[in-house]
User: What shape does this take?
Amino acid sequence: MENIKEIIHVNWEGPFSIDEILEDTIDNQKFEVKSSDIGLYQIYGSHPLYGSDVLVYIGRTKNKNGFQSRLKDRWVINNGNDFNNVKIYLGKIFSDSKKYTNEEINNCIEKAEVLMINALKPAFNSSNIQNAKDFDNNYIVYNHGSHRSLYPIFDSEYFWKEFKNFVTVVRIAKEYDTKKV
Assistant: This one.
């Protein structure tokens, strides 16, 4: 019997400036997302090695702390970037067939964030790298809308198996390092 995977859909909108989010002036005629919503966010800015207008950070809001609350003091926005050229994309979890509880939405947000950070390793992300927690290998994240540099599909089973294989190879290579002989 085939193992049915959990499907997580994220709808991305943007780009937004930090001012639009903090001042709650997102055009609600054009966009569905609101500054007070919870979800995922991508930050594009400058990096001394990778250049300008590149993905530098993936983050999430949780519980009742919306984008506005979460982004007001983000180091990655305020430091080391051309503040006026930072672009932010906001993503919300959705389903056409299921009504999520708040706990389920938070769980989907966390799973999607951890998988995307580990797969893409944005330059300014340091938390949740190699932190799979107790997530199973049984979910797929579909990115819709303005997902920009994100892959349209992230498959946890594929990624975590590949990641675990890589970690195993590195561990064995260190254990059998010929320089120690």
The chain has a mean pLDDT of 85. Residues 156-175 form the longest helix (20 residues). The helical segments are 18-22, 67-71, 75-78, 102-120, 156-175. The beta strands are 6-16, 40-47, 51-60, 87-94, 139-145, 153-155.
